[in-house]
Design brief:
75 residues, 2 domains, 3 helices
Length: 75
């Protein structure tokens, strides 16, 4: 983060009327919300192989068994 950029943005915003300052604030909030969150997959590679194969098989079976059904009572 560049403090110089932040300072310049604040200085420019101070020149704006309140309604335009509010628009800038809403715009920055939308920008923040659009930034991808999470961790790149390459950073997770060190976890490869940490779940035992039998547990992975149990998870796979549970997903196949339970996720391919519709529970009409839930709606």
């Amino acid at each position: 983060m560049s403090q110089a950029v932040i300072t310049e943005v604040v200085q420019e915003m101070e020149k704006l009327p309140d309604d335009l300052q509010r628009q800038v604030l809403e715009f920055t909030k939308r920008l923040t919300a659009s930034v991808p969150r999470g961790v790149p997959g390459k950073n997770l590679l060190h976890f490869v192989g940490t779940i035992p194969a039998d547990e992975l098989q149990q998870m796979r079976q549970a997903i196949e068994q339970d996720c391919e059904q519709i529970d009409l009572n839930e709606w």
